[in-house]
């Protein structure tokens, strides 16, 4: 691996020459493909290339296990947001829940990255996923017995966020151990595909389930859905990986990761871009329950359809990225997404009709994934394996860590000025940062 102070062009050109530890079990088909040295960039659209990563047995288990779990997760997210709004009748509480679920990221995420570099990621995930299953069961019971209060929702959101702070670095960096580096971008795109398939279906089902059966069943389905990914993790046949013990403290390990990021201008800029989208852009989703009721005159089903429309756009975008195979124009796609997202968010603030809102948020989902998926793939392809957990912890920290702050800001702005005005202001800030990177850090749009 090139040192971080070297030019990005040198780093990019050497990506396919970098050796790294692989801890998956290869199928005969994969071995044959890799033996042919099929590492060149491919520019043509291909349905066959779209699902390349599913040829790896461990990744296939991961994909379907996560698909089941994420379906339940999105049902809970949708139901939780509408439940707290139903209980408190205030958009500010939507911000409080978002803040409570995300603040553990700031407290624990960097330590989660250290643990991901020191222990088997699969084992970490089994523990964290089991913890989140139990927490989902608790809120389901509270809701079934009609004793749930706003503070219950906020506290359980905080505890779930704590589990996620240790889960996310291992979950994100595990993909690198399930596929070859040449297929990493495809695997990340397929990860997004499963995530956004669940996003497209889960909220709509949750909205209808909430309206006809109540939120408790949404939480119950989520608790049961964790069983899928836990089974998948247990069935994976991973090779033993040697974890190098160190006498250094966790703080020293964290500092090493931070120094690497500080010295690498490309990774630093990509993380800045993700942070800006998370803080000022993606937080608009916090207001969707209030938007559905106050702006569109709808109900919980309307909220679910809005969430699903965003998920459907994101799913289409992820499939597009996956279909590109091994391509070398990632910077261009990243630029389109990072500028297109705030522009569409700006337009969304003026659209107050349900059909147009659904179409606009569908396009927002497309642009968001173009930016976030490519940023993720670029960071993972450039970071050395020994620092992967810690660097991805910082990357994840910027995403999940700024979400609660953005949610809090968005909720307070909506309370003071209105939902439309809050989204309008945040879209302008996001656009300004994206344009600054485009004009003053041109290396990013040339990334391969």
Layout: helices, strands, pairs:
Elements: H1 8-13, H2 28-35, H3 47-50, H4 57-88, H5 91-118, H6 121-144, H7 150-174, H8 184-212, H9 215-235, H10 250-263, H11 265-281, H12 288-295, H13 300-323, H14 330-348, H15 354-382, H16 388-417, H17 419-440
Helix pairs in contact: 4-5, 4-8, 4-9, 5-7, 5-10, 5-16, 6-7, 6-9, 7-16, 8-9, 8-13, 8-15, 11-15, 11-16, 11-17, 12-13, 13-15, 14-15, 14-17, 16-17
Written account of the structure:
Helix content is 76%, strand content 0%. By secondary structure, it is an all-alpha fold. The protein has one domain (8-18, 48-240, 249-446): Growth Hormone, Chain: A, CATH 1.20.1250.20. α4 (57-88) packs antiparallel against α5 and α6 packs antiparallel against α9.
Q: What is the straight-line distance between the termini?
A: 17 Å
Uncertain residue ranges: 1-43
* Most strands sheet: none
Topology pattern, helix = H, strand = E:
HHHHHHHHHHHHHHHHH
Total count of helical runs of at least 4 residues: 17
Characteristics:
globular; 448 residues; Growth Hormone, Chain: A; disordered N terminus; mainly alpha
